[in-house]
Amino acid sequence: MPVAAGLALRQHAHRLDTAVGRRTGKTQGALTTRWEEFVDVVSALAAIRTAGSCVSAPQSAVSANPSPAASVEKGEARISVKGLGKRYGSLEVFRNIDFEVEAREIVAIVGPSGCGKTTLLRCIDGLLPHDVGEIRVGKELVTEPIAGVAMVFQHFGLFPWKTVYENVAYGLRMAGASKADIDRKVPVFIKMVGLAGFEKAFPYQMSGGMQQRCGLARALALEPSVLLMDEPFAAVDAQTREILQFELLRIWEERPTAMIFVTHSIEEAVLLGHRVIVLKGRPSSIHETITIDIAHPRTRDTLREPRFAELRERVWSTLMREAREAEFHLDR
Ligand SMILES: Nc1ncnc2c1ncn2[C@@H]1O[C@H](COP(=O)(O)OP(=O)(O)O)[C@@H](O)[C@H]1O
Ligand SMILES: [Mg+2]
After folding, report:
1. What is the extent of the structural domain holding 140?
2. How many domains does the chain contain in total?
3. What DSSP string runs through 122-146?
4. Paired residues of 137 in beta bridges
5. Which residues are close to ligand 2, an ion, with C-beta < 5 A?
6. Which ligand is nearest to the CA of 230?
7. Ligand 1 pocket, 161 CB below 6 A?
8. Which-ligand-closest: CA of 29?
9. Does 34 map to a domain?
10. Cis peptide before 203 (omega within 30 of 0)
11. Which ligand is closest to the CA of 109, given by its number?
12. Who's near 102: CB < 8 A, 6+ residues apart?
């Protein structure tokens, strides 16, 4: 699906959503989010294929250096966002967004609901056009989805009619990988996320945690150099969430990439991020960037370190004033 068609469908869905939300009082956004994710999955992978780029065919089952995206010199940013601004019609979502992510760095982004976190990730994935500024992945200017960038969605973005195996294979197939390559890689990534034995299961048969493991395997199978995670653990229960956070850290240690991890959980941001970016305001902009000077690999013990508590409090106090204002805000 061309990106323009995806964008038109998404805007139509959003208009419907707003209209229905007004009538029913249901949270705006909840009705079409899942559907929007399908559009994103298809748009991203189709655009990469149309651009003629395909997943490399390494000799081994999994290549030693994941990253079909534009190459990066040592010390150079893998993702670079400069002066970024985005509006939907009269709604200015964010402005003056500037940050970089190194090749082996996790940057967590926190901010209140509606501040534009998903919009920002979609712009970085090339699924939405931005209005001002520029985004680069490696040296490549992002104007549409590019190979080497993969996204993991809040509501998993899985196709309900496909099994785990087929969902993971889908990304590779769309990216133009050969059947032999798919047969070799899919089991490796299913095992990596702990889903071995569940290849034939359908999403409806699995818990939220298992579904998100599948979403993660689909993204990892593309061997991306950039992983964009949009509140990936927000839809699972607290215990599963904690398990998945440490699983993600384990996988990242095994295959480090540049990662942007969007969350509204302060604890999650501090646990996962090398740096935490706090988005605030209407339109939002970067209020503060906090370096999380806690050594990797992080474990459950990290949660008990005094420095962890200090940094969590710092991010919390930065966000708190905004949260109070948001709670008592009336839409006009
Ligand atoms: N396709 C769209 N068309 C119009 N407005 C949108 C669209 N997508 C999101 N919005 C609005 O933009 C703002 C930011 O949304 P979003 O990026 O989803 O925020 P977050 O992910 O931080 O909750 C919200 O006010 C939302 O209603
Ligand atoms: Mg969001």
Report:
1. 56-327
2. 1
3. HHHTTSS--SEEEEEETTEE-SS--
4. 79, 140
5. 117-118
6. 2
7. no
8. 1
9. no
10. no
11. 1
12. 75, 77, 78, 258
List of residues 6+ apart from 166 with CB closer than 8 A:
159
- Compute, in angstroms, the gap from residue 116 CA to the centroid of ligand 2: 7
Residues 262-288: tens digit of each pLDDT: 998 999 999 999 999 999 998 999 999
Does 48 map to a domain? no
User: What local confidence, expressed as pLDDT, does residue 8 receive?
Assistant: 65
As a whole number, the mean pLDDT across the chain is 85
pLDDT tens per residue, range 211-252: 999 999 999 999 999 999 999 999 999 999 999 999 999 999
Query: Residue 45 has what pLDDT?
Result: 67
Q: Is residue 131 in a domain?
A: yes
Does residue 262 form part of some domain? yes
Confirm or reject: Cβ of 8 under 6 Å from ligand 1.
no
CB of 257 within 6 A of ligand 1: the answer is no
Q: Which of 119, 262, 264, 277 to mutate to test the pocket of ligand 1 (most atoms within 8 A of CB)?
A: 119
Q: Is 197 helix (H, G, I), strand (E, B) or coil?
A: coil
The tens digit of pLDDT for each residue in 161-210 reads 999 999 999 989 988 889 999 999 999 999 999 999 999 999 999 999 99
Protein residue with its CA nearest to atom 17 in ligand 1: 116
Give the integer Cα–Cα distance in Å for 163 and 104: 32
CATH code (residue 259): 3.40.50.300
